[in-house]
């Protein structure tokens, strides 16, 4: 797949062979970066294992660390609102993050943390094999892409596979005015997942 993207620092191919359950086991035992030291729970995936659309967020926050479920707090409510707006059914999407452990004080993951966790991210993407990847914000873009994307402009990665960068739901919490722009970007791209 031509993702125009970073190559993994570790071998994500080995992880792909383990399947999604094997990846979960590897994440649970992972101590490759300091983030694991304060993690109450590793936060791995929410949603379908055969998603049409895959959302990639930044990192678990407090609620996610406590529950082990991606986007289950306030930003998650906004994401759920967007998913409703996109008219996606429960079995049509999945949500993952660039790193699986909560960074202290909700800071952004460092470049090194992103690089260490990237093989898990890439292996999850390969196994989930979505038609559309939605990068939620700049950190997801940084984790997945070498060159910057334009907000809301879909990139065709290979036949039938698209990549789009949208605003992170937390940004919409603090600037509700961005919600209108987010919905416009969704409207522009909805043909990618709504094949009517
Ligand atoms: N923000 C994220 O990027 N991911 C989560 O899981 C929750 C909040």
UniProtKB/TrEMBL annotation:
<keyword id="KW-0004">4Fe-4S</keyword>
<dbReference type="GO" id="GO:0051539">
    <property type="term" value="F:4 iron, 4 sulfur cluster binding"/>
</dbReference>
<keyword id="KW-0411">Iron-sulfur</keyword>
<dbReference type="GO" id="GO:0046872">
    <property type="term" value="F:metal ion binding"/>
</dbReference>
<dbReference type="Pfam" id="PF03167">
    <property type="entry name" value="UDG"/>
</dbReference>
<comment type="similarity">
    <text>Belongs to the uracil-DNA glycosylase (UDG) superfamily. Type 4 (UDGa) family.</text>
</comment>
<dbReference type="InterPro" id="IPR036895">
    <property type="entry name" value="Uracil-DNA_glycosylase-like_sf"/>
</dbReference>
<dbReference type="InterPro" id="IPR051536">
    <property type="entry name" value="UDG_Type-4/5"/>
</dbReference>
<keyword id="KW-0408">Iron</keyword>
<dbReference type="InterPro" id="IPR005273">
    <property type="entry name" value="Ura-DNA_glyco_family4"/>
</dbReference>
<keyword id="KW-0227">DNA damage</keyword>
<protein>
    <recommendedName>
        <fullName>Type-4 uracil-DNA glycosylase</fullName>
        <ecNumber>3.2.2.27</ecNumber>
    </recommendedName>
</protein>
<keyword id="KW-0234">DNA repair</keyword>
<keyword id="KW-0479">Metal-binding</keyword>
<dbReference type="InterPro" id="IPR005122">
    <property type="entry name" value="Uracil-DNA_glycosylase-like"/>
</dbReference>
<keyword id="KW-0378">Hydrolase</keyword>
<dbReference type="GO" id="GO:0004844">
    <property type="term" value="F:uracil DNA N-glycosylase activity"/>
</dbReference>
<dbReference type="GO" id="GO:0006281">
    <property type="term" value="P:DNA repair"/>
</dbReference>
<feature type="domain" description="Uracil-DNA glycosylase-like">
    <location>
        <begin position="44"/>
        <end position="190"/>
    </location>
</feature>
